[in-house]
Amino acid sequence: MANDLPIPQEQKDALLRMSERFMDTETPFKQDYLHPNMHGSSSIKKVLPSLVPEMTYEGMPVANGGDAMNAFDELYFGNLSEDAARQLRRDLLAYCKQDTWAMVKLVDALRDSV
What we know:
The protein is an all-alpha fold. About 60% of the residues lie in helices and about 0% in strands. The chain has helices at about 10-20, 25-30, 45-50, 65-75, 80-114. Helix 3 (about 45-50) packs across helix 5 (about 80-114) and helix 4 packs antiparallel against helix 5. The protein is flat, with a radius of gyration of 17 Å.
């Protein structure tokens, strides 16, 4: 983003400083953590129910990354009615909230396991 967005240099620098603190939460599950319910996958859709079974994406209109990309494209490029766009935006935000909270819960689960 820092290199692709037309933003002032100070904002680019701030984004780059933030990115140094980020970690891909998939890495431990690819390298160091195995659970039989993950079936050899490090996907959040397999990892999350294995470690945080109370969290689920079931029943969500936007329930996976593919759905989220399609929803974003539809909002950005689509010819939706105002009501349909409003609902799709709510659904996409609910998915993003769930995905973000899932990352927090997975980090908590990893901390609890060590």
